[in-house]
Specification:
Blueprint (H helix, E strand, L loop, with lengths): L13 H12 L2 E2 L11 H12 L12 H15 L9 E4 L2 H12 L5 E6 L5 H7 L3 E8 L4 E2 L1 H7 L4 E7 L11 H13 L3 E5 L19 H4 L2 E6 H4 L8 E4 L2 H11 L8 H10 L4 H4 L1 H15 L6 E2 L7 E5 L8 H12 L1 E2 L15 E5 L4 H11 L3
Parallel strand pairs: 1-12, 3-4, 3-6, 6-7, 7-8
Antiparallel strand pairs: 2-9, 4-5, 8-9, 10-11, 11-13
Helix pairs in contact: 1-14, 2-11, 3-11, 4-10, 13-15
Length: about 375
């Protein structure tokens, strides 16, 4: 028997490819976006305590109520938005599951979906699986700003959804108030939904604010806002995310969610609810990761790599054109195998393979890891 693939052009993700290459080459892995340090000890201890106290069975499909209440409180404190924990918040098995459920909830065959590239590699496959038609615009290299005039020209009567991401992976770009105003003007004229990927909401630098869709009523009423505890609590392997959306959108979202994972890890949810009682866990993140960004940039200043502006996330794009004219995939393989530092080639995040001779490096690492990686990069 043969399978006619629904995703014939999709292979193993670049994150798996580069991590496997890093492991086989014995390279320092600055490719896949995960820290090499642990979450706060009290959160880890809390998981064990909740296991010992009997919280080991299915959580409610919507998520543990205590966690949903804490998410609502955090969101109100962070951006002034009010979501009902009972009807407008869903805990998911990671942000990627939330993205899948949100896109599936609204996209039908023939619907057009505007995607800003370079884009997280889960967006396009989910749109395709639902019969949607991806329509592309770009963050313009090298400043990585959105061309809103171009976005406006892309909108047609078939435009159903925009998938947006700020702070932006992989570029580190952060939306401004002007971006929000431009989007709000488009939303006033056209009836599209928004999936807003805000998993790096608390990792923003240099005093910049986070502009959430939740904070703008005209945008919030049409938006699925996606968050991630993995990014916020240095625990990507726990795979706990969430979705904020008005009640009608949440109802449809949960129709999909209940048949994807139904429920998410109960003791981890309980421990995260406890952790949110200490706002410093996320309020201290900008300074924590800004210090790591600045340390990595200082350590690599003597290299022939040129960093591009990084306003948020724990990634920085670095131009290698002074070193090589090789395509980014070839150069990423080269420095992994020869210089023993792995990075992500961003051309994989463009549908047409746009290649600006840059690589994405993750600086969510211990200081010793960053120093060792930088020393190797300075020898290239």
């Amino acid at each position: 028997m043969q399978i006619n693939s629904k995703l014939p052009d999709v292979g193993v993700t670049i994150f798996s490819v580069m991590t496997q290459l890093a492991n086989s080459a014995g390279a320092i892995n600055l490719s896949q976006g995960f820290p090499d340090f642990n979450p706060a000890p009290e959160i880890i201890a809390g998981i064990g305590a909740h296991m010992a106290s009997g919280h080991n069975q299915y959580a409610p499909m919507q998520g543990v109520l205590a966690l949903r209440e804490k998410i609502a409180e955090k969101t109100r404190r962070s951006c002034g938005a009010v979501y009902d924990p009972a009807t407008e918040i869903t805990v998911t098995s990671g942000a990627t599951e939330a993205l899948y459920a949100a896109i599936t909830a609204v996209v039908r065959p023939g619907d057009e979906v505007i995607i800003v590239e370079p884009a997280y590699d889960a967006y396009i496959p989910v749109v395709t699986l639902n019969g949607g038609i991806p329509v592309f615009t770009t963050y313009r290299y090298p400043d990585y700003r959105v061309d809103w005039d171009h976005v406006k020209r892309l909108i047609t009567p078939r435009t159903r959804l925009m998938i947006l991401n700020s702070p932006h992976n992989p570029t580190g770009a952060v939306w401004t108030g002007e971006d929000i105003a431009a989007l709000e003007a488009l939303a006033a004229a056209h009836p599209f939904f928004i999936v807003s990927d805000e998993v790096y909401e608390h990792i923003i630098f240099d005093g910049r604010p986070h502009h959430s869709m939740s904070a703008v009523p005209a945008l919030a009423k049409r938006s699925f806002v996606i968050g991630s505890f993995g990014k916020t609590f240095h625990a990507t392997g726990w795979k706990v995310g969430y979705c904020l959306a008005p009640a009608p959108l949440t109802r449809e979202f949960q129709r999909i969610h209940q048949y994807l994972t139904f429920a998410t890890n109960t003791p981890v949810q309980m421990a995260l609810a406890d952790a949110l009682e200490t706002p410093s866990h996320y309020l201290d993140l900008p300074a924590f990761y800004q210090e790591k960004r600045d340390r990595f940039l200082t350590l690599t200043a003597a290299s022939r790599l040129t960093p591009l502006p990084c306003g948020g996330t724990y990634f920085v794009m670095m131009d290698y054109s002074a070193v090589s004219r090789d395509p980014d995939m070839a150069f990423a393989r080269h420095i992994t195998e020869v210089h023993k530092v792995a990075a992500i080639p961003p051309s994989v995040f463009y549908h047409d393979g746009e290649d600006n001779r840059v690589l994405r490096f993750c600086f969510a690492k211990n200081d010793d890891t960053l120093a060792a990686a930088a020393e190797r990069l300075c020898r290239i």
